[in-house]
TrEMBL record:
CDD domains named among the record's database cross-references: AdoMet_MTases
UniProt-listed Pfam families: Methyltransf_11
Biological processes annotated in GO: methylation
Record key words, sorted: Membrane, Transmembrane, Transmembrane helix
GO molecular function annotations of the record: 2-methyl-6-phytyl-1,4-benzoquinone methyltransferase activity
Membrane-crossing segments per the record: 151-176
The species this protein was found in: Chrysotila carterae
Name of this chain's protein: MPBQ/MBSQ family SAM-binding methyltransferase profile domain-containing protein
Segments forming domain MPBQ/MBSQ family SAM-binding methyltransferase profile: 1-101
InterPro entries, A to Z: Methyltransf_11, MPBQ/MSBQ_MT, SAM-dependent_MTases_sf, SAM_MPBQ_MSBQ_MT
């Protein structure tokens, strides 16, 4: 994703940094805002990542995250849950509140070609006077942690294989669904502009 972003002309003045979202390499109070889309539910510990975002934004600044909600069709939901988790609105809000944000608010969002499939935009503010979270440090590697990591490797590989199989089914279905919906939108636009 970083490589693709680096070639965009409108982003030429940006600095790109590859880092662990749960241990950001930035100083406290560095940013006017933080925006993320489709990432929060992938973090092993979302509250830790949000505390890091709270730490690096300036007092009074907002952190905005956009995340998927559970797909409505049962077949798609069962397949999608093999490779993704779908927090509820209450879970997203709870993560923001537990991380220390104030004025946490949400709104449903969708895209033009699939208005029934909602996602959520969640925003929280770093209130002036909010206690500064301590900088997160990655856990030190230990022998026990390495053994547990190796024990989970076969399960991880299996889950990845199932996820790829599910994605191989879902991706073409979603592309077809999106293409049909975009055609309908174009037809509606043409009818509206050429009565």
């Amino acid at each position: 994703m970083l490589e693709r972003a680096k070639v965009k002309p409108e982003l030429q003045k940006c600095r790109f940094e590859l880092a662990d979202a749960q241990s950001l390499p930035f100083e406290d109070n560095s940013f006017d805002a933080v925006v993320s889309s489709g990432t929060l539910y992938y973090y092993p510990e979302p509250v830790v990542a949000l505390r890091e975002q709270l730490r690096v934004v300036k007092p009074g600044a907002d952190v905005l995250a956009m995340g998927s909600l559970q797909p409505k069709p049962l077949f798609i939901r069962v397949l999608a849950e093999t490779f993704n988790r779908f927090p509820t609105e209450e879970q997203y809000k709870g993560w923001f509140e537990e991380a220390g944000f104030s004025n946490v608010r949400c709104c449903y969002i969708s895209n033009p070609w699939n208005a029934q499939q909602y996602a959520l935009a969640i925003c929280g503010t770093k209130a002036t006077g909010t206690a500064q979270p301590a900088r997160a440090a990655p856990p030190p590697p230990t022998f026990r942690r390495r053994i547990f990591g190796l024990a989970y490797l076969p399960l991880t590989v299996l889950r990845f294989g199932v996820a790829m199989a599910a994605f191989a089914i879902l991706a073409p279905l979603q592309i077809l669904n999106s293409a049909r919906a975009m055609r309908r939108l174009k037809e509606q636009k043409n009818v509206a502009t050429h009565p």
